[in-house]
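Encode chain A's predicted structure.
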Amino acid sequence: MKPDPAFRLLAGRRRFPATRGLSYHLLCLVLCVSSSACTGVTTRPDRPKKRISETTKKDADEQAKRGLRAYEQGEHRAALVALRRAVESGADMPVVALSQLYIAKAHFALGEFDRARESLKTIDPQSLSEPLRREAQQLRYLLRHKEKGCADAEKTLDPPLTVERDLALSRRFLLVAAACRIELKQWERALLTLERVPAAFDNKIPALNEWVLHWQRRIVRREVDPQAIGRLLSDKLPMIRPLVLVRALRLASREGDGKRVQELLKALKPERLGRLDAALVKEVEQRWRRPHDGGEGEIVLAVLPLSGSLKGLAQQIAKGMAAALRVFGPSSGGSKLRVQLVDANDPRGVQVVNAAIRTNSRVVAVIGLVPDASRYKSLLTTLETERVPALLFTTRAKFKNPYHIGVFPDPMLETEALVRQLALEQKSPRCAVIRGVRTIDRLRARRFASELKKRGGTVVAELAFEHQADFSQRVRRLRAHAPSCVYLPLAPALAGLVLRYLAGNDIFPKKTGDRLATRGKSRQIWVAGCASWQQKALIAESERYLQGVRIPLLFHPNRDKVGLELESYVKSVFGGPLEPAHALGFLALSLVSQSCGATCSRGSLLSALSQWKSSPTPFGVVSRTTAGSLHLEQKIYALHGTTLVPLK
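Encoded structure for chain A:
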């Protein structure tokens, strides 16, 4: 295309022949650019800039993610490269601050402590969230104490740890020492330090114990990240100190250690406690300020229906308790026990008993007739939290044979004992679990499954007993799984019903009553938790009952002291045939009397019970000893069978 004559004229073709081509093209370029700028066809200054900004931000986010991923996988050098790119890419301030924090953490993990300090100085704290700010603060703390942290921490912990010492200081330094040893790759010293953590926290915090085991395993495999200890320090210690102190206070109060209670009350600051913990501290404070009236001895609460349809049964139990008091009580030089009767037919019974247990440290045990434990959850909770030894019998009128007896000691100890027994009897047990919907039932089922797996067994099916209507149909499906045993962590009201379902559906033989574990050829039912089951021997065969062959509540008294077998001895005490309820009262109170000895308190009773060796049986952790007493792991509620009557 020929150029316009005007362009030729402006280019001065005739005057500058040597440069006419160059001038012409330059002029064309200038005119084109100026005309396009006027029309606005090609140049949009904000759009290209916006595209560049979005690309940069996206790249920075990707680099930050890549760096965090590399850090989590332990590739600290790769993490440093990616995170530095994210910082240099001009990302948003929160991303920059996060990247700088993890750059510092990566330097720390690589042992480059000076660089870690420099990186921490560049972080803008306002750009970090609260947890990340705490993490940065903790990293500064570890860097500050790195050089002398190990020596100081271990020097501080040389004396034995006690609750009376400054818990916050000792536990913080204990964990800092572990962090330093891991950081310096002194694995053996780190393991030794970590071993002291559960004892330092009185073994009362399962999550902490699990954390320690987890890190011990990781140290052995050399899969370590020192920052996890830093996170634990920053997140857990503010909660742990008051938690440990409150639990120690509760334990000291139950054990009757007044001096320790006063020291712990001084150490606790109520403003740092939650509402429930503060209420507990106030309650303990009031209890220990109340003067004790001396000379009356220790109290056993006998919760019995003193009127109504169960009056005769209650009288038999009370008669047996009176006989035991004559044999083992103050008149025979035994413990200074005082039995306080509480009318179970009084509607205010539960409140009265709960208040008596909580406000009177001289209440050392509760013995009673509690026919429907489900209506008395608050009483069972009080017994558990206050660690009061209890022997409770329940009756259920709806069964043909009204007497039922069951035992539940500590849930976790009991579960371990059952699994050990199963592993002894069956090479690879295949178990079905039929559990309730309560939290404790779920916990027991989960613990059972984990213990069983450790010992080579499997859980082939798990059913939740929610509605009775469809349960029979669901139980029939168990036959397809062919379990060798069934584990029942259930409430008392459901266990007998489930046993009948199992027997009625031919999964197990129709034989219940003479053993807690109902056996077929190679199958058995393990009734766990607070389950109840039928015990025909309790009514029909007093002889078997007294021999203690099938019923876990029974024991042989000390033969050196009594000189007779239990059966003939009890018969001689009562002067004739023995009613089962009569025997229950006698045995329950004689157990408490022998346990307490000459000086009786709730703490001494618990310590006496805890000293007896236990052996796993189908009943849970229950055994008879050479001294003739029954071992109760912290608590046993024996449930002995009719319709519940309110307590006083």
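The chain has 29 helices and 13 strands.
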